[in-house]
Amino acid sequence: MLELKTRLTRREEYLAMERASEYRHEYSQGEVTEMTGDSREHNLLVSSISARLYMQLLGQPCEIYTSDMRVKVTEAGLYTYPDLVVVCDEPDLEDAHVDTLLNPNVIIEVLSNSTEEYDRGKKFAHYRKLPSLTDYLLVAQDRMHVEQFARQPNDTWLFSEADHADVTITIASIGCELQLEEIYEKVNLPEADLDETER
Fold first, then answer.
1. pLDDT digits (tens, 9 = 90+) for 124-183
2. Residue 110 belongs to what domain range?
3. In this structure, what are the phi and psi dihedrals at residue 176, rounded to the nearest 5 degrees?
4. Residue 91 has what DSSP assignment?
């Protein structure tokens, strides 16, 4: 989640500050925003998705990073921390610090009230500038609902969504599947949502 307080700084100052800080900050065209802690449900979803992707990608040249790997969108002037990143190409890292990835293949964000509008709008617009990105997934934490945007050969994005326990999301670009019942296994959803998914 992001706090509203921001300040202006140069990219080099941001990186020096960030590498010395115990907290994470997003940088966008000179503006720095502190990222606050995540909810229990948010952490459970990230852990669950990461574990299932890891098992499916065993033996393949893919790496999975959770929210401590910084991603840079050069064209947008953005440094940010996606909730989950998969890279199956050779990781392209910005410098010798090996802490900023330039070529994510899959980005997954778990939505919260404070970030949902940004994740759907401006942030996704920035992410689309990454030539390496093939899939962008938005995962709700207050209900069983996953949205997927998959890049097509003509550089358009195909949208699909799932909101039932027995539905499986396929991430064809990395050969992985995510069943909603499994990724939401330990997440306490409202009873009304649970009843709806069982219909």
1. 999 999 999 999 999 999 999 999 999 999 999 999 999 999 999 999 999 999 999 999
2. 39-197
3. -125, 155
4. P
14 part of a folded domain:
no
Distance separating alpha carbons of residues 25 and 32, to the nearest angstrom: 6
Torsion of CA 34, 40, 42, 43, to 10 degrees: 90
Is 104 part of any domain?
A: yes
Query: What CATH number does the domain containing 177 carry?
Result: 3.90.1570.10
d(CA 68, CA 159): 27
Query: Token pair of 145, please?
Result: 């609902």
Is 52 within the bounds of a domain? yes
Residues 6+ apart with CB under 8 A from 96: none
Residue 32 located in a structural domain? no
Query: Under DSSP, is residue 70 helix (H, G, I), strand (E, B) or coil?
Result: strand
Domain count, the chain: 1
pLDDT of amino acid 8: 63
Distance from chain centroid for Cα 90 = 19
Higher pLDDT pick, 115 / 152: 152
**Which segments within 39-92 are labelled E, that is strand?**
63-66, 70-73, 78-80, 84-87
**Per-residue pLDDT tens for 42-61?**
999 999 999 999 999 999 99
Predicted confidence (pLDDT) at residue 195 exceeds the cutoff of 70: no
